[in-house]
Design brief:
There is one protein chain. This protein has about 160 residues and is an alpha/beta fold. The chain has a single domain, classed as Phosphoglycerate mutase-like (Rossmann fold), CATH 3.40.50.1240. It is about 30% helix and about 20% strand. The chain has 4 helices and 6 strands, in the order E-H-E-H-E-H-E-H-E-E. A 6-stranded mixed sheet has the order 3-2-4-1-5-6, sandwiched between helices. The termini are far apart.
Length: about 160
């Protein structure tokens, strides 16, 4: 089972958009990241979840479109920035199908830390807006498969 964890794309400032939708730069970053990844891997998560915040929902929709996913994109509880990562660790442990989760800091790094290291404070990977951290679950636990982020596509990244 593969788990694609995505920090939402760069959002507009609250003064520009109180709902904090995805910015033009955020859209470009998702196109680059999702497009690059689709050249080498054909991600086909069975489930697509987001936190319910507009920027996470829009990011999930953009990844689904770029990867030609026909899945329902669902809002899920316990993906907010300060949610307890143990809730999603338990959900993922019970799943067998590939999944795409779009969320926020500090929840995503704490979840990955829990899955990989058994605690929430280790920070084994770095998340960035519109980046993808892919984990694979097997009988031995979780391993990092890759970490791709949009800074790879910019000079000096």
């Amino acid at each position: 089972m593969r788990i694609y964890l995505v920090q939402h794309a760069l959002a507009l400032d609250e003064a520009q958009d109180p709902k904090r939708g995805v910015s033009t730069q955020g859209r470009e970053d998702v196109v680059r990241t999702a497009g690059f990844l689709s050249l080498f891997e054909k991600p086909k998560p069975v489930h697509v979840f987001h936190s319910g915040k507009l920027r996470a929902q829009q990011t999930a929709e953009m990844f689904a479109e770029a990867w030609h996913l026909k899945n329902d994109i669902m809002q899920a509880d316990d993906l907010s920035p300060n949610a307890n990562p143990e809730v999603w660790a338990a959900k993922l442990n019970a799943m067998k199908d590939d999944v795409l989760i779009v969320g926020h800091l500090p929840h995503l790094p704490r979840l990955v830390s829990l899955l990989l290291c058994g605690d929430t404070d280790t920070k084994p990977v770095r998340f960035q807006n519109a980046g993808v951290v892919c984990l694979e679950k097997d009988d031995d636990g979780y391993q990092v498969v890759f970490n791709i982020n949009p800074t790879m596509f910019y000079e000096g990244g």
